[in-house]
Amino acid sequence: MKKLIIIIISTLCISSYVTAENYLVWGTTRGDGAGTTNSGTSFDCSAQAGGFGTVSRDLWSVNSSTGASTNIASFDTGNCDGLTDSGVNFNTGSYVDKNTGNFYALQDDNTFKVYNGTTGTLVSSTATPSIANATIVGLSHTGTSHIVDPDGFKMLEKRSDGSIHIGENSLVTREENGRQSLYAVDATGSSIDLDVNNGSDLLVNGTSVMNSIKATTALGAAFTSITFPKDTGRFSCGVGLGHYSSENALATSCGKKINDDMSISAGGSHLINSPDNLGDLPKYALKIGFSYSFGNKKKKVAKNKVNNFDNISVNRVSLLERQVLALKEEIKELSEMKFEIVKLKVELEKQKRLATNVSY
User: Fold this and answer.
1) In whole angstroms, how large is the CA radius of gyration of the chain?
2) What residue segments make up the domains of the chain, in order of their start?
3) Cα–Cα 20 to 30 A to 243, which of 69, 199, 227, 268?
């Protein structure tokens, strides 16, 4: 038997719903002389004019890379001896639904027979159009633009707000306010978390987000590990090591005490084991700062004096008490001596007057 596809009713229709690299093709097959149709029915076209005729209408899957074709459905026409007309037509207006991958075969009564674009099995038949004598001259799809898999689940959908949804429980992206938003929703439309896992890393301009967090945390930890005691000299330096997850950093910092109220410090921190996927993220950090003391310092001094008294030993208190008593005794003796001096002064004045009287 010699078979040849002689009529291709539609141009080749690329459809990712059949397989990722296949076209879905529909057309008719011619039989020369005697042979067997694609459905396995024997025929003889010798009695036909020219000895050939259309023996079947067929659906083919054609590999876009290799050109290999596979017949997925065949319907006999009844044009040659031995054949019974299947009643299936591929009239102009037949099409592939790019949303489902199903093939819609337009019949003589303006109805469609719907076939699965992968298996070729009959899915459904549409009802007779309600508009009498209508002639279909064009087809168009309405509603939301979307792509579905052979099971009818949405793979890709563009909604009226411009958002593109990937999958049933969608990863969503949309351009708004000059930015490209990216988020995820569940089957109810509620927002859910995005989880980058299974060994993948999240990069921004080639820089790992997680390693950036680790690196900056290690740099900060190295700075905070350096402390300066309050009672140090007017100038001091320190070295510190910071570690977070797999990142390590070394820092050094120096400070100067300007006066009792003000001090200033500066330092730098550097990553020790810098990973390759930090991109343009700097491998070091710098700091500089100053501090100034506020508050009532007199109250603080008074408090310190009270604390000093609390630290005086018992022996010291006893010594002070003895010294106080000795001073009291000296004061008493001085008072007595002052009394004697007054008495002497009075007696002296008396003797002086007596001497004066004798001379007259």
Assistant:
1) 53
2) 2-142, 154-192, 207-292, 308-359
3) 199
- Give me the residue label for tokens 């990722």: 20
The pair of three-digit structure tokens given for residue 180, joined into one six-digit string: 């490209």
| pLDDT per residue rounded down to tens, the chain (360 residues) | 434 333 333 333 333 344 446 778 898 999 999 999 999 999 999 988 888 999 999 999 888 778 888 999 999 998 899 999 999 999 988 888 877 788 899 998 888 999 998 889 998 888 765 544 455 555 555 555 666 665 666 677 777 788 888 887 788 888 888 888 988 988 888 888 888 888 888 887 777 787 888 888 887 888 778 877 666 566 788 888 888 888 888 888 888 887 777 888 888 888 887 666 676 777 778 888 878 877 766 554 444 554 555 555 666 777 788 888 888 888 877 777 777 777 777 777 777 777 776 554
If one counts every other C-beta atom within 10 angstroms of the C-beta of residue 16, the result is: 14
Q: How far apart are CA 93 and CA 80, in angstroms?
A: 26
| Beta strand pairing call for 262-271 and 122-125 | unpaired
Distance CA(246)–CA(287), nearest Å, equals: 23
Q: Is 100 exposed, middle or buried (0-12, 13-18, 19+ CB in 10 A)?
A: buried
- CA atoms of 283 and 269, how far apart (whole Å): 9
Q: What is the pTM of this model?
A: 0.41
Which CATH number describes the domain made up of 207-292?
A: 3.30.1300.30
* DSSP track, 169-205: TTEEEEEETTEEEEEEE-TTS-EE-----TT---EET
Sign for the CA dihedral angle at 338, 340, 342, 344 comes to negative
CA–CA distances in Å: residue 178 to residues 40, 175, 181, 312 = 61, 7, 10, 75
How many angstroms separate the CA atoms of 24 and 73, rounded? 11
Any idea what DSSP says for residue 300?
H
Q: Which residues lie across from 71 on neighbouring strands?
A: 60
